[in-house]
Amino acid sequence: KGIVGGKVAVITGAGSGIGRAAALRLAEEGARVALVDLKADRVEDLRKRIADAGGEAIAVEADIAKPADIESAVKEAAGKWERLDIVFANAGINGVLAPIETMAPEEWSTTLDINLKGTFLTVKYAVPFLKKNGGSIVITSSINGNRVFSNFGMSAYSTSKAGQVAFMQMAALELAQYGIRVNAVCPGAIKTHIGQNTHPAPELEEIQIPVEYPEGDQPLENGPGRASQVGDLVLFLASDASSHITGTPIFIDGAESLLH
Ligand code: NAD
User: Fold this and answer.
1) ipTM > 0.95, yes or no
2) Which H or E element spans position 37?
3) Which residues approach ligand 1 with their CB closer than 6 A?
4) How many Å apart are CA 203 and CA 251, to the nearest integer?
5) What domains does the chain contain, in order, with CATH numbers?
6) pLDDT per position as a tens digit, 89-138
């Protein structure tokens, strides 16, 4: 039952924010969900919540930037339920925010490794399973992935998010022959925990970093969006209700991008 009833989904970054909200929506609509995150305790809590509500879920601790980790996470999910239909490649970080001049090369690499290479690895290891029945891949990029905003210090983040859109479109072309659709959700500011792991360099202290969400930042909501609203969009893209949509970045930002 449900619009993704019987389907099997892998969700990365399921321990918090957008990934958690999407996992709950997919499970409510009948999907069996593999909850992947660096933080084992967070996905275990969510697994229990879904099981208590009568859903089916497994919690898997994995770092998406490590090939062996994410390969075995995808294999575990597809092995347990003997199929794979939906992949939500969502885990990501803001990383260190610093001017280009002072950003350490290894800080740049960490952001690109998690946000961009981690997305590639998640998709790469899922393709052999998705090919069997077709499926839907959804990637979390950002409005920053389409054109950059005045977010000083976010050169690595914005580059990773733009790279995800290019990768999404290449994957949509390459995988269409197998009936696999690939799309990206591009949120504006959404109230989650992402700001807690953000590290502005001291040079940026004087500059407003979008860790707090000012009122009036988004015309529609007069504030940030909610993770559950992105979860609804992910559910639509994951389901057969979007069966002719592929290769598309979809903004979900309450018209924030039109203000800048
Ligand atoms: P969040 O910090 O609330 O959740 C992210 C989750 O990903 C956390 O549970 C974290 O442990 C996990 N994670 C981080 N690195 C990981 C790794 N290497 N391997 C496995 N798991 C890892 O943040 P969120 O806002 O829900 O972010 C989800 C996605 O949304 C990110 O890709 C982010 O760039 C994107 N995004 C967020 C916003 C926003 O305003 N919150 C806007 C645009 C895009």
Assistant:
1) yes
2) strand 32-37
3) 12-13, 15-19, 37-39, 42, 63-65, 90-93, 114, 118, 140, 142, 187, 189-190, 192-194, 197
4) 31
5) 8-259 (3.40.50.720)
6) 999 999 988 999 999 999 999 999 999 999 999 999 999 999 999 999 99
